[in-house]
Write a sequence for this structure.
């Protein structure tokens, strides 16, 4: 099925029924995915950006046949996830960051060999791939070490190898560099780029918290929040969306009380589209997306009324983080499993 | 294990056969059997493992022997003694197989946290679980052998190897083991759909069956309204057939199954086994779909 998209979802939805603490009547419903329409073409390294609780992992679970959707359809490599799961499993692999799974009594080599066997690889091929991939992630010397004796980072590297050992057509990478040190994360990103260059017909779906990683790796990105896709485009095209806006970073003295209870926060100043606030080193850092430079005067006046002086001001080009804030209304590191609107002032 | 070709064992050669590599069910079973053996045999060094394998079943049977001795004032020559001793020895397999198969689901999900990698791999979950139970079957069989041998040597159990009805013993044991594996799979599949209290399901079922299957007393002793429980468990028929095969006419001292010929016992056992295995296939599929629907397949409850 070479002309089929690698991943196709139509009106995909998933609702979880959450049990109440005591009685069945206390059960609630959580909408994890809400009408997701997504097409990832073969050969793409596609990114999925969203805060915790946005629905990324639920989407991956459905696509990897671990979870059934409650509405809509999903296909991987032209195969339906509900009707043809076994065929899909022959073609996919998953790698999750921060993962320390594995049979602790087995060595690294035995664990990897066993998974290679589950995918039907014979021993010489499995051995060759294990050696190649151990070399790539730099843990060849740990080949005969028991998993239980590995550090968290090394276990994660082993799981990364496990994901690629079957030479899959579609790989789902859920935060693959989470918890890795800088060097290891760079090695992983290099490997992913090389792997895609060597296998132009393969597809990678990557979820990540790291904007720079998404920017560096992904040909296209989808931004997801509260189960809905908010935008799908190339990183550059997403950033171009904000070129008409003015983006400022302001460092100011800590904000005082609003002088007038009738007056709103900074987000209520005319021309302010989005604002995020962070306290650092006794100062307040504001990241502002304004409809134009003109709006800055209103912001400064607002700050002045609240007794806050300007320490520094920087105008900069839009980043993916700005795109995310513009679309979602808060920073990526805000957990949407909690109620409320994150860092809005 | 080493993967160097010069030291590859028979097991690896079997796994490399094209027919095995292509067949999901066979491949899953054989790799899971290898994995199960690694897990069961590698948790201690070989010396400790050997001691554990011998001492555990003997300690278990000695508790019963001491209780019997106190109550009957050492009447080891009564026909009830070999009945109890053999029932208890053979029952080791019940716990090992039922919990061996069902525990694998919990172990993979909660302990090793590999459930999602297994369920996203092209394996047959059904035969994988059977494979995981094989190691327990092997260990259980060794334990049964040691316990029976100990009974023959120390308590003079009336078992003469030359007089054993081997076809009956092997056929009934094969059917009994298959029935237990089917039951273990049903319990295992059930645990897939549960978030908590699943630890004890396998042990609870095998513990309950201990009372109702005639393992330590003839089920005639039970009140009439409880006897039917024993009659619907295939283990009851397996224990009866295995005792007859091992003890010969000495096993017929109780009237429970006196009217049943060996062939009738095997026939009933075969029918129950077939029903359990077929039922387990359907139940496993239902439980898998149910777990996928509820998102429980890779759940880690932390219990």
């Amino acid at each position: 099925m070479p002309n089929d998209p690698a991943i196709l979802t139509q009106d995909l939805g998933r609702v979880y029924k959450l049990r109440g603490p005591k009685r069945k009547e206390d059960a609630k419903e959580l909408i994890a995915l809400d009408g997701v329409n997504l097409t990832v073409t073969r050969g793409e390294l596609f990114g999925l950006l969203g805060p915790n609780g946005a629905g990324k992992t639920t989407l991956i679970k459905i696509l990897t046949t671990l979870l059934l959707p409650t509405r809509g359809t999903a296909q991987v490599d032209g195969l339906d996830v509900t009707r043809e799961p076994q065929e899909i499993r022959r073609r996919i692999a998953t790698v999750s960051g921060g993962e320390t799974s594995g049979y602790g009594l087995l060595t690294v080599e035995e664990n990897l060999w066993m998974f290679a066997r589950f995918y039907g690889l014979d021993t010489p091929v499995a051995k060759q791939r294990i050696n190649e991939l151990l070399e790539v992630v730099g843990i060849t010397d740990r080949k005969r070490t028991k998993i239980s004796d590995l550090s968290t980072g090394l276990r994660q590297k082993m799981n990364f190898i496990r994901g690629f050992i079957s030479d899959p057509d579609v790989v789902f990478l859920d935060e693959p560099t989470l918890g890795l040190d800088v060097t290891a994360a760079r090695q992983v990103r290099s490997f992913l780029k090389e792997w895609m260059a060597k296998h132009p017909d393969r597809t990678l779906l990557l979820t990540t918290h790291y904007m720079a990683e998404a920017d560096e790796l992904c040909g296209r990105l989808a931004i997801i929040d509260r189960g809905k896709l908010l935008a799908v485009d190339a990183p550059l095209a997403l950033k171009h969306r904000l070129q008409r806006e003015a983006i400022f970073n302001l460092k100011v003295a800590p904000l005082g009380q609003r002088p007038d209870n009738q007056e709103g926060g900074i987000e209520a100043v005319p021309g302010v589209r989005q604002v995020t606030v962070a306290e650092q080193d006794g100062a307040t850092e504001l990241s502002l997306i304004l409809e134009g430079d003109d709006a800055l005067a209103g912001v400064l006046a607002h700050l002045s009324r609240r007794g806050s002086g300007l320490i520094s001001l920087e105008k900069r080009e839009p980043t993916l983080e700005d795109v995310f804030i513009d679309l979602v209304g808060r920073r990526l590191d805000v957990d949407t499993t909690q109620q409320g609107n994150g860092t809005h002032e | 294990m080493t993967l160097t070709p010069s030291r590859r064992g028979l097991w690896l050669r079997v796994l490399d056969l094209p027919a095995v590599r292509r067949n999901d069910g066979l491949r899953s079973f054989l790799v899971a059997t290898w994995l199960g053996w690694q897990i069961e045999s590698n948790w201690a060094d070989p010396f400790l493992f050997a001691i554990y394998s011998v001492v555990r079943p003997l300690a278990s049977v000695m508790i019963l022997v001491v209780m019997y001795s106190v109550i009957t004032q050492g009447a080891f020559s009564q026909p009830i003694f070999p009945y109890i001793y053999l029932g208890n020895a053979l029952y080791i397999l019940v716990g090992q197989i039922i919990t061996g198969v069902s525990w694998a689901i919990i172990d993979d999900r909660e302990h090793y946290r590999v459930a999602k990698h297994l369920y996203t791999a092209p394996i047959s979950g059904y035969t994988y679980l059977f494979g995981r139970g094989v190691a327990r079957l092997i260990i259980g069989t060794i334990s049964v052998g040691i316990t029976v041998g100990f009974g023959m040597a120390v308590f003079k159990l009336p078992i003469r190897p030359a007089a054993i009805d081997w076809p009956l013993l092997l056929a009934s044991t094969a059917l009994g083991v298959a029935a237990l594996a089917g039951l273990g799979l049903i319990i295992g599949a059930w645990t897939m759909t549960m978030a908590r209290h699943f630890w004890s399901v396998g042990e609870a079922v095998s513990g309950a069956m201990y009372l109702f299957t005639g393992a330590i007393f003839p089920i005639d002793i039970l009140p009439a309204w409880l006897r039917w429980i024993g009659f619907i468990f295939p283990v009851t028929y397996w224990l009866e057939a295995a005792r007859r095969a091992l003890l010969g006419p000495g096993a017929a001292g109780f009237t429970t199954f006196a009217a049943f010929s060996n062939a009738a016992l095997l026939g009933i056992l075969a029918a129950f086994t077939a029903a359990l295995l077929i039922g387990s296939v359907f139940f496993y599929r239902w439980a898998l779909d149910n777990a996928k629907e509820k998102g429980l397949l890779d759940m880690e409850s932390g219990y």
Confidence is low (pLDDT under 50) at residues 1-7 of chain B. Chain B touches chain A through 37 residues (CB under 8 Å). DSSP finds twelve helices and no strands in chain B. Residues 23-294 of chain B form one domain.
